[in-house]
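Exam revision sheet. Question 4 asks you to relate a sequence to its structure. Input first:
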Amino acid sequence: MVAQASVTRRKAAGLEDSRCATVCRIVFGVTSDVCSLILSLLHRISSATLTLVIKILLILRGTDITSLLSAFLVGNIFDILAQTGWVARAVLGILLFFSLISWALIFQKLGLFGRIRRQSDQFLKIFRATKGVANPQGLVNAGSPFANVYAAGYRELQSQMSGTGNPSPPKVKSLQAVTVSMQLASTDEVRRVEKGMSWLATTAGVTPFIGLFGTVWGIIDAFSGLGTSGAASLRAVAPGIAEALVTTAAGLFAAIPALIAYNYFLQDIRDLAQRLDTFANEFTSQIEKTFG
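Answer key, structure tokens:
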């Protein structure tokens, strides 16, 4: 009888394993070998617990696990924020302000430099396809910084050509004056695209220290809670430690994008300034060939 009961239990266990393997394949979409390995690891778990796990997996079937984790993390973050003190909230508010302004500048600069690239390529294509020194009216429509630099050089050229005592054919009185006019216009264009860069630099340099202030305050609060409770328990120091970590993370979240964007846009500004200087030399060379 005992042997027969043992055989019966083994058959029942085998049938249960077969059903569990089927559920495993349905839920996870893995092979039977992998399911068998998982079940062999779960043999020590009681049948009631295993049945509960399978039911939970069946309920979660078709559910976006990423969304669940995101909701869990966001919920934890809001719980931590609800437990922070007024100092930490003030620090987080300041960091949020820096971060919002920085992201607005980042998107504005991305659009600005993308527009400048398109307009500059269009202008240079028209300029290099034109023979001689063309009237800037047809080129300024491109809206590029190159068009403004070209217009400044052309105005200086026209003022020299229209002056009294100029021989025929006309000659350029001072090519250096044309170059200086274009360099001044180039400087103005570079200064225009540099607006907002100081804010990104300030955000990258200051926000980690603001977050560090929140970190120090959170640690002080944690030790204060430890002293108030009179017992060295995690419950006593957890709010202060959580507050410190949140402000540290917020400071890094505000500083890192601003630093990356500052270096990226700084390289774009340097490239623009170099291209404008090269264009000024190209234009003065064209003037010298035409009127020299």
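Marking note for examiners. Residues 80-291 form one domain.
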